[in-house]
Amino acid sequence: MADQPTIATVPPFQHLAIIMDGNGRWAKQRGLQRIAGHQQGVQVVTQIVDECVERGIAYLSLFAFSSENWGRPQPEIAALMELLLLFLDSQRQQMLDSGIRLRVIGDRNRLSDSVRAALATAEQETSTGSGLTLVLALSYGGRDEIVRAAKKIAERAAQGLVDFATLDNKQFSTFLDTTDIPEPDLLIRTSGEMRISNFLLWQSAYAELYFTDVLWPDFDAAELQRAIDDYQRRKRRFGLTDDQLTPVAATDNKETAD
To answer: What is the pLDDT of residues 154-185, one digit of tens each?
Structure first.
């Protein structure tokens, strides 16, 4: 009889994804304009990026602007895009110094020429970074990504480059925006909302979900650590049973103690 598959109880932590929610409510609670919440949210982004670099996390994906966000008032959209440009400009040297590689996922066709150009420049300049990969989801929706992938596959199939008979999950994934990015281990959503809002639908099939009432502008290193600590207490079965899991945590602790 073949050996049963085994899996670590808590595999190495590679990829953190965050739905940054609550900027508007944070501002409203303080009698401020919504843009003030977004401005504070950008400051938190820089802090969490630094925290991930220090922790040695390989990938950080941030839901920055969804495909549905295009329905917001035009002045707010314009302000958000201006904040994005300011972020790219202000963090350019920091990304280069820290070896951060920027990746952008989503439908760029709806972005302005200036934003697309700034993103392309930032990606090119940081392409050799060997540290944290910072993934910004802009004009992004999980359903839209899957549809775009399906269209690419159909086009390749029409050219005889894809065989539907042998198409599987692994090959399908290569047509997604995240083709060379591992699936998220932990997905955090701030602000108390308990849904993933069309973010990384395919990729998060087995991600551990963590919801916090903390609004994004109040999210800090301590809150990040709470989420990671919670993750470390979980078992990731990937469809297997408890008996098939390998309790590596105790072994790792013993090796550390030795």
So the answer is: 999 999 999 999 999 999 999 999 999 999 99
Structure tokens at 86: 């300011």
What is the pTM assigned to this prediction? 0.88
| pLDDT, tens digit, 9 for 90 and up, residues 45-68 | 999 999 999 999 999 999 999 999
Sheet holding 208-211, edge to edge: 101-105, 133-140, 59-66, 15-19, 186-189, 208-211
Pairing of strands 133-140, 186-189: unpaired
12-142+184-253: which CATH number, 3.40.50.620, 3.90.180.10, 3.40.50.1000, 3.40.1180.10?
3.40.1180.10
The residues annotated as belonging to the active site are 21, 69
- Structural domain boundaries in the chain: 12-142+184-253
